[in-house]
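Long-time lurker, first post. I've been practising inverse folding by hand and with some scripts of my own, and I keep getting stuck on stretches where the structure tokens seem ambiguous. Below is the full token string for one chain I'm working on. Before anyone asks, I'm not after the true native sequence, just a reasonable design that respects the backbone. If someone could post their per-position residues I'd love to compare against what I wrote down in my notebook.
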């Protein structure tokens, strides 16, 4: 049987139309700052910090006001970003742990199901473990470090001066016919802070209401502000390379923080300054420029949303909720609650005198208005993560010891024990200074949040005691 050219054309035409109707998978770029609370950017309302590149980026995309990371520390928060699961669900409750080999990640699914070329570069990405002399043999024996095989291009930890080189290397290796996923990690504004000349005037910056206005606090904030401003320039450098090497058509670019700033009430705590980080997304032609999203979004939601955008089904273990429809202006049902988990920090063994800097266990459930914190180690002495030896904390401690610290701050930071439950009205008390737990008039609100947290902990196979009797 012979087939004429016309018959062949008629048979092939529907296939060609179908192929043309399939949208190309978007390129995906994730750019993370390190220890960066949302309020420390101009576009988030801070008048005393200079972030022109990030502010312009926000004007070109969508800025999220109620995005919360899934943990107030880098390893567990990045776990959620990359796996679509909570850190406890992904078995990343210990700070130096490697991501288990059976926990699938966003770049793996993009590569296997979508044909993506994938890469990670710049600062340590934190998910392949931190073996020291007492654990390196275990890591090697059991082949626990897996990221060399999870992505196509892996730069484990290059210094800031090599940002351009590493991003260009990624594009040098990328096949031209493949969509790509690139995760770029910045050092700034992670502690320790540099003394950058010609930066912010400590006397003119804004001190958050949850910190006392003391000279040492202002000095540490000055150094922090300066690193945010330096990072703003590095961000633009990366954008320029992307535009030059690959263009920005059909490219989803996210700028976000991994967790909040390392000051009291911030990093290592489940208060908003520890979890509410910048989250700004640009997708030219799909996201309305200058738009703002006030919906609750979790760190677990990023991976499933990017998979949704790429037309790839998420792994069944992923608990994130796609917000793709919110990005593109289609009908969307937002979350009622977001959750977060405080797990261990650093690599020191537990010892007499261990404080919350390295060990604390707590959980959080938050709605739009009310927020519940569940402290399972309430007698653990408080000290801020990373900055516990810096001017700000030393001066606060001295002022408290001499009885000169505002009683509000003494109660917040120097009480011998924290309550097991904390409940805050985020509309009336955005600084989270008045604990409403146990108030009869809010009993229904408190129970609703406990039930939501109970469900989350059960589904995550959480190892902590449940907040309610089973």
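-- Answer (accepted) --
I ran through it position by position. Result:
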């Amino acid at each position: 049987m012979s087939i004429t050219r016309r018959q062949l054309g008629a048979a092939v035409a529907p296939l060609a139309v179908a192929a043309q109707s399939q949208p190309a998978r978007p390129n995906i770029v994730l750019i993370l700052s390190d220890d960066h609370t949302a309020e420390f950017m101009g576009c988030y309302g801070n008048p005393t910090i200079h972030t022109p590149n990030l502010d312009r980026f926000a004007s070109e995309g969508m800025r999220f006001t109620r995005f919360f990371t899934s943990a107030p520390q880098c390893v567990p928060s990045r776990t959620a970003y990359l796996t679509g699961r909570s850190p406890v669900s992904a078995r990343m409750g210990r700070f130096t742990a490697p991501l288990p080999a059976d926990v699938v990640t966003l770049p793996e699914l993009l590569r296997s199901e979508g044909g993506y070329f994938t890469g990670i570069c710049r600062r340590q990405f934190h998910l392949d473990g931190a073996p020291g002399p007492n654990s390196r043999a275990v890591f090697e024996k059991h082949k626990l470090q897996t990221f060399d095989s999870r992505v196509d291009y892996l730069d484990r930890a290059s210094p800031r001066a090599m940002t351009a080189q590493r991003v260009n290397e990624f594009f040098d290796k990328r096949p031209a016919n493949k969509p790509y996923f690139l995760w770029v990690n910045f050092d700034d504004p992670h502690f320790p802070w540099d003394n950058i000349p010609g930066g912010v005037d400590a006397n003119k910056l804004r001190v958050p209401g949850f910190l006392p206005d003391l000279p040492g606090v202002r000095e540490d904030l000055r150094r922090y502000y300066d690193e945010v401003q330096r990072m703003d320039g590095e961000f633009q450098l990366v954008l320029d390379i992307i535009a030059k090497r690959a263009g920005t058509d059909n490219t989803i670019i996210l700028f976000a923080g991994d967790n909040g700033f390392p000051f009291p009430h911030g990093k290592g705590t489940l208060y908003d300054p520890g979890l509410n980080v910048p989250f700004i997304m640009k997708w030219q032609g799909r996201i309305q420029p200058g738009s703002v999203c006030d919906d609750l979004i979790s760190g677990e939601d990023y991976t499933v949303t990017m998979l949704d955008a790429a037309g790839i089904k998420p792994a069944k273990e992923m608990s994130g909720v796609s917000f793709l429809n919110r990005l593109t202006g289609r009908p969307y049902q937002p979350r009622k609650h977001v959750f977060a988990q405080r797990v261990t920090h650093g690599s020191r063994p537990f010892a007499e005198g261990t404080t919350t800097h390295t060990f604390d266990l707590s959980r959080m459930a938050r709605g739009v208005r009310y927020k519940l914190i569940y402290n399972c180690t309430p007698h653990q002495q408080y000290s801020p993560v990373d900055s516990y030896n810096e001017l700000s904390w030393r001066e606060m401690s001295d002022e408290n010891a001499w009885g000169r610290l505002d009683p509000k701050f003494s109660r917040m930071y120097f009480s011998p024990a924290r309550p097991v439950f904390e409940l805050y009205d985020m509309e009336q008390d955005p600084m989270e200074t008045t604990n409403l737990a146990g108030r009869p008039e809010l009993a229904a609100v408190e129970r609703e949040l406990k039930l939501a947290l109970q469900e989350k902990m059960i589904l995550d196979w959480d190892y902590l005691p449940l907040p309610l009797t089973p």
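A couple of notes from the structure itself: Residues 23-335 form a domain with the Alkaline Phosphatase, subunit A fold (CATH 3.40.720.10). The chain has two domains: 23-335, 341-459. Happy to go over any region you disagree with.
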